[in-house]
Amino acid sequence: MMTTRSRPISDEVKATPEAYGGEGAGGAGLPFTALIWGAGVGYNGARPLLLQGDLMLVLRSNPASPFVRKVRIVAALLDLDGRIELSNADTSDQADSLRVQNPLGKIPALILENGEVLYDSAVIVEYLDGLAGGGRVIPADPARRFRSLTRQALGDGICEAAVLLRYEQLWREPAQRSEKWMAYQRDKIDRALAASEKDPPEELDDVGTVALACALGYLDLRFGGDWRGRRPKLVEWLEVFSEATPSFEATRLKG
Ligand SMILES: N[C@@H](CCC(=O)N[C@@H](CS)C(=O)NCC(=O)O)C(=O)O
């Protein structure tokens, strides 16, 4: 059984305009009391009560991030996207308040009305699912739940390896790059794609499928879609997912 946290994650991170780095986050000043989790209610019954006004959450983000995209699509599936304000973060800028909000300096990070900050993307997804009543994008049925969460881990793992490959290009001079290390990361992606090709998801609206779609989208964005040639079933699956999920196209970074 999950218990309800009774004090902020960090007392230093408060819902002040300064904490948001003046990036037009807009969440500051909104009523703290808008959200109260059902006291003493077990995980399955945990349901936030919206007491007053509009709940506004701030998502430190960047349109290129596949992890941010996953959170945005989940929010849209749960009809919570109107309650989330995007605030761009520059992960390489030491002065960006992101590093106060998430000591790891990574996006996405979700700032709640009381100033608490949630990360990483899997935690944010779980929070949003609970906010929407629970059991929506993270199924309640144990068999489906753990299949879905494992697929999320696979999709996120593809993204992690792909992001590391991307950083190798961005952060290292050509002479410093390790071909061996890059091949190690490419193999992870390849094995994960091969497993997904053998067993494409049947579901279209759970966190596992969203994570997989975002991983494929990121490979399209940064690696010219070179996965497509060898993965016809996944190509077809992504088309079906895209048709069924307007927010997938809406969150696609163009150009
Ligand atoms: N496990 C994290 C991964 C997040 C992540 O790696 N985000 C990248 C952007 S796509 C980032 O913030 N990179 C900056 C860094 O590693 O310092 C999640 O699921 O949120």
Order of helices and strands: EEEHEHEEHHHHHH
Q: Give the termini separation.
A: 45 Å
| Beta-strand content bin | 5-15%
Q: C-alpha Rg, in Å?
A: 19 Å
The total number of structural domains is 2
- Given helix and strand content, the structural type is alpha+beta
CATH fold name of the largest domain: Glutathione S-transferase Yfyf (Class Pi), Chain A, domain 2
What's the number of helices?
A: 8
Question: In CATH, what is the class of the largest domain?
Answer: Mainly Alpha
Architecture per CATH nomenclature, i.e. the level-2 architecture of the largest domain = Up-down Bundle
The hetero molecules present are:
glutathione
Question: Unreliable segments (pLDDT under 50, ≥5 consecutive)?
Answer: 1-52
Largest sheet: 4 strands, mixed
* Helix content percent band: 40-55%
Count of distinct strands: 6
Mean of pLDDT: 83
Physical arrangement of strands within the biggest beta sheet: 4-3-5-6
